[in-house]
Every structure is written in structure tokens, then in C-alpha cells.
Amino acid sequence: MNVMRTAMLLAFMTALFMGIGFLIGGKGGMMIALVIAAGMNLFSYWNSDKMVLSAYHAQEVNAQSAPEFYLMVQSLAANAGLPMPKVYIYDNPQPNAFATGRNPENAAVAASTGLLQSLTHDEVAGVMAHELAHVQNRDTLIMTITATLAGAISMLGNFAFLFGGNRGNNSNPFGFIGVIVAMVVAPFAAMLVQMAISRTREYSADRRGAEICGKPLALASALSKIAGTARQVPNYEAERNPATAHMFIINPLSGERMDNLFSTHPNTDNRIAALQQMAGEFRGDIGGGGSTGQSSAARPQRSARSVPNSGSDSRWGRSSNEPPKGPWS
């Protein structure tokens, strides 16, 4: 089913791209747009994950450089029955995380240093389980390709006036009105596609993520903390790449809006309420308990206080001069 959805989305985004080309340059512009869109679809399939990770300067970690975090993801992936994804950390004070990759066999999950420094062990596990749920649901391909194409469509719309103003009526049958439509409607349409994708998939990933980690209330607590901090701590990379906003567990852009068509994510309170309801469904564990693949005795315990911020030498794993160590190693 997700393969069909991906194909439908690619067809829609390609048609939108061609429509912009037609508005700007007539049939010739439409054909050029078709060639560009086909090339971008192919390129995005193989490289969109690398582009997103590069945009956020994410660094891959392993069991030696970030043992606790890496082993947590490994345990969660085993719970979900998934291949072990690549694990990344990106240096940003805003707590957030995202997943990417064209399929579960080529997936990657990334967490910010802010997330690892401000959330408890169980909350981080809930967040990473949510991202693994996106991998398992095969949302990552459609989300990363959408980010790439939406950014291209928005850019093409922004340049519509420049290109359209130099075209005669023969090449641009709609004249200046067509250029205005391309400038306004195209980026708006691309934005709506992103919003629809994120909103319809977040609830499903929340539920599956809670099942993977076994602690719906831990994920609910993480969402509350991330949403509260995201409004106060800017993510400058996300502000420069707004087309990637729908990939994050919580909207990384400043000014989260209400739960309507113009929000990149469902309202956080609604997501928390759904997780709280789910916690009651956990037989014998209304408090949202469970396991991330380790017994309670074996799993390292950690208080709810934040990990001290040590800058680039984060205890979660990235030091510029020596192999970093995890916070509970």
C-alpha cells in the first residue's frame, strides 16, 4: 500500500512540477520540467537521505563512540524486527529527531544533541522508537523525496517571475497571470502536500513507536518536552531548509500552529492524549511501562534531570579530538 502511495505522490509532485513549467514556458517549459522532475525523482530515490543528513551536519556514531545511545537503538530495532539502521547525532540545542532512508535496509535515524541532553533514557527511547516506526511503515522514502521535491518546487515558484517576465505570449499562454499563479500556488501546493504527509503519518508512528518501546507515556512526555522547547530554541538549519520540517518528530520551525490544514504536524496535545489513551490499553501497565529490549534490572537507570551541556564534547558521543563516550557508559 505504501508503494502505491509513494507512486501516487511522485506522480502528483511531477505533475505539479510540469504544471509550473507550463505556466512559465508553455509546452516547452512543461517538457523541460518533466525531464527535470524525472531526474530529480531518480536522484532523490538514491540520495535524498544523504542530502538531509548533510544539511544538518549529522555525524554517524557506533557502539564505540556512543555506546548507550547506539545500543538503545539496536535494542529497539530488534524489538521492531528491523535491520539495524545507521545512527547519527547532529549538533543542535533544539531537542528533536528524524529518520530517513529509502527502505528499512538502508535507513538512518538521527537525534540532536539537545534531545540527548534534555530527555530521560525512557523518553529518548520513545522518540527513537517513533522514528523506527516511520522506518517500519516505510514513511522515510516518501518523506525525504517530498522534502527534496517540495524544496525544488518552491524554488521554481520563487524564480517564476524572473523566468516568466522574459517570455512572450507564444511561450507563456497565460502571460503575467500564469507567472503569478506559479509564484503563489506552486509553493503553497507543495507545502500542503508536506503537511498532509506528516499529519497522516505521525499518529500511526506514535502508536507503533509506543508499541516498540513499550512505554507510551514516556513518548508522550518526550513530545511535551520537545514541543515546549522547540518554540524557544531555534533550529537554524531547519529554518534554512523548511522543506524538511515534516520529517521531524515535532515541527522544528518557530511558531507551531493549531491542529488544522496549515500545521506541518498534528497538534501535540492531541498526540499526547492519544498516547495516554493507549497507555490504558497496556494490560497491567497503565503507567506506560514496558521494555526497550532490556530488563529493568539490566537497563541503566537515569534520573529525569538533564544531562549537563558540554558543548561539542557531548556525553552522547561527539568529541572533536577523541572518541566520545555515551552518557551511561
TrEMBL record:
Biased composition range(s): Polar residues: 307-322
Names of the cofactor(s): Zn(2+)
Gene3D superfamilies per the UniProt record, alphabetical: Metalloproteases ('zincins'), catalytic domain (3.30.2010.10)
Residues bound to Zn(2+): H130, H134, E202
Subcellular location: Cell membrane
Annotated EC: 3.4.24.-
Boundaries of every Peptidase M48 domain copy: 72-278
Molecular functions per Gene Ontology: metalloendopeptidase activity; zinc ion binding
Cofactor note: Binds 1 zinc ion per subunit.
Region of interest called Disordered, as start-end residue ranges on this chain: 282-329
Membrane topology: Multi-pass membrane protein
Main location: membrane
Transmembrane segments: 7-24, 30-46, 141-162, 174-197
Composition bias type Low complexity, residue spans: 293-306
Family: Belongs to the peptidase M48B family.
Database matches in PANTHER family: PROTEASE HTPX
Protein name: Protease HtpX homolog
Gene name tied to this protein: htpX
